């Protein structure tokens, strides 16, 4: 079989609802690797939030921060930080709306607010050990590949109207991802595919969230998890079982990558 690139979302695809990797998913990844295929994460998370998962599954390639920071065999092949001037505008607008922000680098994250209940609730759901640091000026001195805006559902509409050069994708009841317009997991995967000099026919993608839609629409061999909302399922070529029901394993069998 021709060697394939299999891009896997983490939360809701590899991770179940308890932020654990089912045994069937671990076995699936190991079997793919033994067959000589490249398994890569495709996630909205920053690299520092999935280091343990990398070690556990022996995965050293990833499309992280919703496509803004791409790595193959631990070498950076693409990065797309947000412009400082744009972040200045976002900071001003968010402060006026009393909406806190977190700025994500590839190896750390910094908040412009020392404490806020929305930040606590949203970040707690990720189960990340590395604490959010308080440094409202970080974006002026360090590369920021993604911001997290904390606001109630629907409040992002104002930002969408105001910032046409940014994209806002909700991932939690109290938070949305903020990335450059045109940035996505799909774009990041395209950079990885070009780096690997692979045919698009040999690329596969699995996901379940709103930030997976562009990826599932653009990758020829796409699979949505059974736990995905209908709008995400409709973006994929195939729908597998729920992540808690060995969904990844079954999906890989459905597309012929596992026996």
Automatic annotation (TrEMBL):
Matching Gene3D superfamilies? 3.30.1240.10, HAD superfamily/HAD-like
Which PROSITE patterns does UniProt cross-reference here? Answer: COF_2 (PS01229)
Q: Which InterPro entries match?
A: Cof, HAD-like_sf, HAD-SF_hydro_IIB, HAD_sf
Q: Name the PANTHER family on file.
A: PHOSPHATASE YKRA-RELATED, PHOSPHOSERINE PHOSPHATASE
Keywords from the UniProt entry? Hydrolase
Protein species of origin: Lentibacillus cibarius
Q: Which domain of life is it from?
A: Bacteria
Which GO cellular component terms are attached?
cytosol
Q: Does the keyword Hydrolase apply?
A: yes
MF GO annotations: magnesium ion binding; phosphatase activity
Output the lineage of the source organism: Bacteria, Bacillati, Bacillota, Bacilli, Bacillales
Q: What is this protein called?
A: Cof-type HAD-IIB family hydrolase
